[in-house]
Structures are given as C-alpha cells and as structure tokens.
Amino acid sequence: MAEQTGGDPLFESHDPIFDRKELLHVGHVPDEDRIVGRDDEIQSVAAEVGAITRGDPPNNVMIYGKTGTGKSLISRHVATRAQDAAQGNDIDCGVLYVDCSEANTETRTTRQLALSLKEQTEYQQNIPLRGVGTMEYYQHIWGILEDCFDAVIVILDEIDKLDNSNILMQLSRAREARKTDAYIGVIGISNKVQYRETLDERIDSSFGHRELFFHPYDASQLREIMRNREDAFQPDVLEDGTIELCAALAAKKHGDARKAIEILKEAGELARRIGSETVSEDHIQQAQEVAEINRIEELTSGATVHAKLALYALASCIITGDRETYKTREVYERYVGICELVATDPITENGLYRQLKEQAFLGVIESEKTGGGRSQGSYLLHRLVTDPKHIVKAVRRDASLEDLPTYDRLRETSPSTGNRDTDLTSFS
Ligand SMILES: Nc1ncnc2c1ncn2[C@@H]1O[C@H](COP(=O)(O)OP(=O)(O)OP(=O)(O)O)[C@@H](O)[C@H]1O
Ligand SMILES: [Mg+2]
After folding, report:
1. 35-56 CB burial, b ≥16 within 10 A, e <16
2. Residue 339 burial (CB count, 10 A)
3. 116 marked ligand binding residue
4. 71 lines ligand 1 (CB under 6 A)
5. What ranges does the record list as Polar residues composition bias (predicted)?
6. 174 Cβ neighbours under 8 A, 6+ residues apart
7. In angstroms, what is the C-alpha Rg of the chain?
8. Can you give the residue ranges of every domain in the chain?
9. Which CATH superfamily is domain 38-214 in?
10. Is the CB of 259 under 6 A from ligand 1?
11. What residue's CA is closest to ligand 1, atom 1?
12. Alpha-carbon distance 107 to 182, whole Å?
C-alpha cells in the first residue's frame, strides 16, 4: 500500500515515517483487541443493555466523563457486540447512533433515527427530509420498530447539546404507550457533568436510568492505547521512550486518549517535515505544545471575549506573580486593567466569576473553594490547568485581542526578572 507511486517522482514512493497512519486518525474506531483499560466500563455498559440479547427489557444508561475517556468508543463497541449476541439468539436488534452536537433538536434527532432505521431495513415508505415535524418522524420510527425489530439500542452522543429532552420520554414510554413492542435501550453520553443536574429537572421518572462515570486514563493505560497503534509507524521509527513520554505528558495534563494519539501523530508529521528518520522525545515535546495550544483554542474558541479576557487575566497573574492560584477579586482587578488595554468595557465582578466558572467546566481552569476562617468567609481560588503560555497564545489568536502583550512581554515583569513593579498597562 505504502509502496504505490503512481509513477510520478514528485510524490514519494514510500512514507518514511508512517506505515498505517489511519490508525491515528481521529475518527478511527479501533478493533476490539486494540481497546485497552476499559474492561470494567465495557462490563458495566453491557450489564445495563445486555438484557436485550436474551429478549428481556434493557436499562437505560447515562455515561458521563471528560473528553477522550472512551465514552463514544465503548458505547458503540458494546452496542455492536450486543447486536451480534442478540442475532445469535434469533433476536433482531438494531443499533442507532446519533451525534446530538449535529442533530441538536428533537426534529433532527428523530429524523436521523428514522432514516437510519430505514437504511437497516426494507421499509418502503418515503421519509421526507424536510417540511414535516417531529410527530411524523416518530410515526416512522414506531412503524419500522414494530415491523422489523425485537429490540433497539439508541446511542445519543453529546446529549447535552439537545435543546430538549422530550425524546428520552418518548423512547422510554413507547412500549407502555403501545407505539411498539420492541424493547428500547438508550445510552446517553455527555462530557458535561452539569448536564446530570439539569437532567433530573428536565425529565420525569419515566426515563429511569443508571449512571456510569468514565475516568481519565492514567499514564500506563495511555501507554497501552498507543502501543496498540504502534504499527501506524514504520518499524524502528519510534525511538525508545517516546510512547512513554507521550503517555506521561498526556496523563499529567488531561488523561485524554484522543489527545495522546494526536500528539503521537503530530510528532510523526513533524519528524517527516524536517526529514528526520526517527521520532524522538524532542519531537513529542514539540508536538505536545502544538496539541495543547490547539486544545485550548478548541475549548476557548466558542467563548465570549470576556471569557477570553478572564483567562488571559488569570494567565497574566500567574506569569507576572509568584503564585499558581489567585482569588476572583485579584483576577478581576487584573481583568479590568486588561479591558482598558483593548478598549473594552469590563463586565461586573460577578459576571467575571461566572465566566471563570464556565471555564472551570470546560477543564481550562480549576477553581477551589477555600475557607478563609469564620470571620472572613470562604473564597474561590483559581488555577490554570495548562501552561499560561498556551492561554496567552490562544487568546491572542482572536483578531480583536492580538494587541495584548505576548507571553515574553509578560515575562519581563515576572519576579524572576526582578521587574515586578512594571505596571501591566505600561505595555499599551
Ligand atoms: N480504551 C481505549 N483503547 C483504545 N483507544 C481508545 C480508548 N479510549 C479512547 N480511545 C481512542 O481515543 C479517542 C477518543 O475516544 P472517544 O471518542 O471514545 O472519547 P469520548 O469519551 O467520547 O470523548 P468526547 O467526550 O470528547 O466525545 C478515539 O479515537 C478512541 O479510538
Ligand atoms: Mg465522544
């Protein structure tokens, strides 16, 4: 495969670094024997939906966990295995997967469910793509389930992006309401733990469900995950210790398997670009920097200017100060000064507090309540989860904020350079 040249010398006949690069692609679904360190989670998900394979009613389950902890992978994996096992018992079990970050309304989700059910069967009726409402899509769903299936597993990924939760009620009541005889098991997935709190307010008891929590991977699990994809590279290209380093860096930062794999791939790209024959620890370090900035940029790109300024303010406190954590008040004071630099009206301290909370949510910062003693009350201390350098870089990528001081400019006022008293506003 890698040897095909097409005969044109403009294109290398052989990739010196990668052999099966597709193993490192973001959307790549690894084979069963490449799934590592999630045996308990696989068992737990199987225990909830597994009754389907015996012709019994399944449980619904909600899976929570940070990004890159294998939620989507494990859900699809277990659902497919359940489908095969059901087949072995002469039970027709469908698997439906919807990414609710794309299908973010009930109409879109039900349309996609109806269409993918139709795809899996001989259903003849036309399902219109537009011009019809949710009810009509439900009719098709119940119709197909009734005709063609004994059971179905519905995976609603990124379910927090759905604008309402009615679909959960519809799916869980379908049998009772005599819409269909098929058993329906829902696997809901979210990386927003807050969604868990709002879910109870949004739905009634008809959507009975269990909850599972997936934890970030530790270094040894990340190492295994990457080892199992080592054959993405040509033999002997990865230098000793590179996977270990990559795993250690990713585990320290976030325990996110997707990022760990991305770092490995980026390091390979880098090595190839500069004509190196091997991937070294140095390449991993550099790739990790790039990946981290991308991660921060992804996380902050949807944020408001004030959220970005809030992050920048905290980063600037850390860079110019001598501590890792700062109170809301301190961040606010810095933030007000920074607003002046970019000629923006500051929001209130409480508004800033809410912005910081939102960022804590996204995993960019960590906020910890500290008791200040009985008379002082408690206050929040904020710290960055990432290198402040990355925050400064990511925030300055916003065209309206590119005039903010660079990391190096901020460093000039840090205590280690003995220049602490320089007023931040003197950069303007
Ligand atoms: N246990 C594992 N073994 C092998 N590869 C894994 C494992 N867990 C995750 N991966 C890989 O890491 C990437 C991220 O996993 P996945 O998409 O399942 O994460 P997620 O928890 O759904 O994250 P998000 O909340 O961002 O959607 C995928 O490419 C997946 O193949
Ligand atoms: Mg996912």
Report:
1. bbbbeebbebbbebbbbbbeee
2. 17
3. no
4. yes
5. 413-428
6. 142, 145, 180, 182, 184
7. 25
8. 38-214, 217-299, 303-427
9. P-loop containing nucleotide triphosphate hydrolases (3.40.50.300)
10. no
11. 36
12. 22
| CB < 8 Å & 24+ apart, contacts of 237-241 | 237/16, 237/17, 237/268, 237/271, 237/277, 237/278, 237/279, 238/278, 238/279, 239/278, 239/279, 239/280, 239/281, 241/281
Q: Which residue matches tokens 């585990």?
A: 251
Block means of pLDDT (10 residues each) for the chain, 428 residues, are 64 86 85 86 96 95 92 95 96 96 94 96 92 94 95 96 91 91 96 80 82 94 93 95 95 87 94 95 94 82 86 95 93 95 94 83 79 69 89 90 93 62 38
Q: Is 276 annotated as a binding residue?
A: no
- Cα(293) to ligand 1 centroid in Å equals 20
Q: Which CATH entry fits the domain spanning 217-299: 1.10.8.60, 3.60.15.10, 3.30.413.10, 3.40.50.2000?
A: 1.10.8.60
Topology at the third CATH level for domain 303-427: Arc Repressor Mutant, subunit A (1.10.10)
| Separation between Cα atoms, residue 212 and residue 44, nearest integer Å | 8
220 labeled part of a ligand binding site: no
Q: What pLDDT does 147 receive?
A: 92
- Tell me, in angstroms, the distance from the centre of ligand 1 to residue 191's CA: 12
